[in-house]
Amino acid sequence: MTSIQQKGISSERISQSTSVNVDDLECSICRDLLWKPVACQKCETPFCSTCMNRWLANRTITCPTCCNTYIERKCPPFVTKVLSHLQIICFYQANGCQEILPYEALDKHEIECGYQFAKCPGCQLEMLKKDFVTHKKSCELVPMTCRDCKLMYKRNEATTKHTEKICLRKQLKRLKHEYKESRGAIQKLNIELREIRHLYSSIKQTVITFEDLPSAAKNLLHMPNVYKGFRWTKISYMHELLAIKKYSKSGYVSSFLPGDSLHVAFFGETATISIEPPNETFSLVSIMACAAWNDDLELTITAYRKSIEVNQHSVILLFGRPQRIMLQWKNIDKVVFKPFGGTAHPGCDEGPGAHVSLTQLTIDDLSLSSSDFLTFD
Ligand SMILES: [Zn+2]
Ligand SMILES: [Zn+2]
Ligand SMILES: [Zn+2]
Ligand SMILES: [Zn+2]
Ligand SMILES: [Zn+2]
Fold first, then answer.
1. For a tag site, which of 61, 241, 318, 364 has the least CB within 10 Å?
2. Where is the RING-type domain (predicted)?
């Protein structure tokens, strides 16, 4: 907000109590007391800033006093200093304001002075600003906004346009709208979460191939107790060279895929993989396995969470040809493999029977469960 003064301050408004000679403080355009003065850089004559702006807009670009091109500078400090000693009567004295203020404080007071006129936005009546507060409380036409339903109405419309029923209906409508919006937002978030999860899981998948285990080229070896974050029970592994040398007729030989790991894991009885530490969970994406000695060997894979069975899948394995078994089991902590049945593959009659060659396990490290999704009810 800017000052209401459109030009200098008339000399009658200078309070009698001040003993300052004001003759030198006159604006040479409006002939009143300088108000927010600026000065000509050349001749240093001060003018009211409003007077000067009007002068420059209407006439030329020259100073009204020295006739040189007007370049503005700050009002000389001695003028500002004398002005600051003046006491000025409020512009709204005629309306009843009794304030007499230091020159510097005048602007702020006059912007806020309660004795200026204000127009009621409802009934359009002009009144003193200080009276408007009381008027507003009773004016029938003043626009009001309901805090609950946000409806705008005039006071005299309260019984027609803003009844309790209307207010409640409006609130209900707003709530429904908000509900819809947040519901939409949540659905969007869930979709994003799913996408992120999908992206992330493809990055975070670990494929266990047994490649980096100590070489089992000379002897069959037991899996280390803990390997790749899992505890392996009743599972051993062998090197391709050992398979060729000692079990040349078995399906092990062909279960080494070209360019893949030189180790395969195997088991001939119920075997277990559980996460370490046990309170964690993991996702089993898939495994690759085949039968080592039998045709029609059945493998039952069971997943547990806190000792409760959560998934199960049975599959007939191929002899010597690893197949990928897709599982996509999430949020589990233990997997049990149980080989069963089948008949000896031709030439494998002397083999140990229901043995499984496990060539790969694909693990998803990110254990995002369904409870990570926001539900809405
Ligand atoms: Zn002036
Ligand atoms: Zn000048
Ligand atoms: Zn006042
Ligand atoms: Zn009014
Ligand atoms: Zn309302």
1. 61
2. 27-66
d(CA 14, CA 35): 12
* Rounded average pLDDT per 10-residue block, the chain, 377 residues: 67 78 86 93 93 85 89 92 92 94 94 93 92 90 89 89 92 92 90 81 80 94 93 96 94 89 96 90 94 96 96 96 94 96 90 93 66 48
**Which ligand approaches the C-alpha of residue 107 most closely?**
3
- Which positions ≥6 away from 40 have C-beta within 8 Å? 47, 63, 65, 66, 68, 70, 71, 72, 73
How much distance in Å is there from the Cα of 115 to the middle of ligand 3?
6
CA pair distance 27, 36, nearest whole angstrom: 11
The domain covering 117-157 belongs, at the CATH homologous superfamily level, to: Zinc/RING finger domain, C3HC4 (zinc finger) (3.30.40.10)
Choose which CATH entry (3.20.110.20, 3.40.50.150, 3.30.70.330, 3.30.40.10) describes domain 11-89. 3.30.40.10
**Which numbered ligand comes closest to the C-alpha of 136?**
4
Our CA dihedral for 77, 81, 87, 88, rounded to 10 degrees, sits at 0
Taking the centre of ligand 2 as the mean of its atom positions, its distance from the CA of residue 66, in whole angstroms, is 4
| DSSP classification of residue 174 | H
Q: Which ligand is nearest to the CA of 39?
A: 2
H or E element in which residue 29 lies: none
Q: Which CATH number fits domain 209-370: 2.60.120.1350, 3.40.50.2300, 3.90.79.10, 3.30.70.1400?
A: 2.60.120.1350
Q: Give the ligand at the shortest distance from the Cα of 28.
A: 1
